[in-house]
From TrEMBL:
<feature type="domain" description="DNA2/NAM7 helicase helicase">
    <location>
        <begin position="30"/>
        <end position="131"/>
    </location>
</feature>
<dbReference type="InterPro" id="IPR041677">
    <property type="entry name" value="DNA2/NAM7_AAA_11"/>
</dbReference>
<dbReference type="InterPro" id="IPR027417">
    <property type="entry name" value="P-loop_NTPase"/>
</dbReference>
<protein>
    <recommendedName>
        <fullName>DNA2/NAM7 helicase helicase domain-containing protein</fullName>
    </recommendedName>
</protein>
<dbReference type="GO" id="GO:0004386">
    <property type="term" value="F:helicase activity"/>
</dbReference>
<dbReference type="Pfam" id="PF13086">
    <property type="entry name" value="AAA_11"/>
</dbReference>
Length: 195
């Protein structure tokens, strides 16, 4: 999974891979890195049991978050609960949808709209990343955070230094548009965040 996310990250950081033929090649290259798992068992019932357990519980990723993978069941399933993921059932559904030209056109237009939205998001994120990279020529001290105003794409800095007055501890959340001075050697931990 790390190889897959590495490829997607490279794609997101590449300026020339957002549109056209290069985007298609880059996406297909990233898709080849996506992990797949083949599950085999000595009986149809055993395969169905594995599928039902995955459908109920899902998987846990490296961050501890639950997700449900896409599943295709090859062969005849014994259980009605796995029928939706059977290859034959999926093909029949696609063929039925393909017969309805209006529905197919609407589906294609929906995908095109989603692609335009994703492309727009990538362009905006790239602008933010570039602005933040240019605004921080060195790693900031651990109490500083880089943020960006979404509306005007302007970088600002937040100081999270903890202050103690009497017995009270509070965070001094001062903001500035000026880059803070370079940290001392033992305090140099880069801290980036998008707000």
């Amino acid at each position: 999974m790390n190889h897959y996310f590495g490829e997607v990250k490279k794609l997101a950081e590449s300026f020339d891979a957002v549109v056209g033929k290069r985007a298609t090649l880059s996406l297909s290259g990233a898709a080849k890195k996506r992990p797949r798992i083949l599950v085999c068992a000595p009986s149809n019932a055993a395969v169905d049991n594995v599928i039902m357990k995955i459908m109920e519980d899902g998987f846990v990723d490296g961050n501890g978050c639950r997700y449900n993978p896409s599943i295709v069941r090859v062969g005849v399933g014994q259980s009605a609960s796995v029928r939706d993921v059977c290859l034959g059932e999926k093909v029949d559904n696609y063929m039925t949808e393909a017969m309805d030209v209006t529905k197919l056109d609407n589906t294609i237009e929906g995908y095109k709209s989603e692609c335009r939205r994703i492309h727009s998001d990538i362009v905006k994120l790239r602008e933010r990343m570039t602005a933040m990279k240019k605004a921080t020529p060195y790693p900031l001290a651990k109490e500083w955070e880089v943020r960006i105003d979404e509306n005007v794409c302007r970088v600002f800095y937040v100081n999270h230094k903890t202050n103690k007055i009497d017995s009270s501890i509070f965070k001094d959340k001062r903001t500035t548009f000026e880059c803070p001075p370079p940290p001392e050697e033992d305090n140099a931990i880069s801290r980036h965040c998008n707000a």
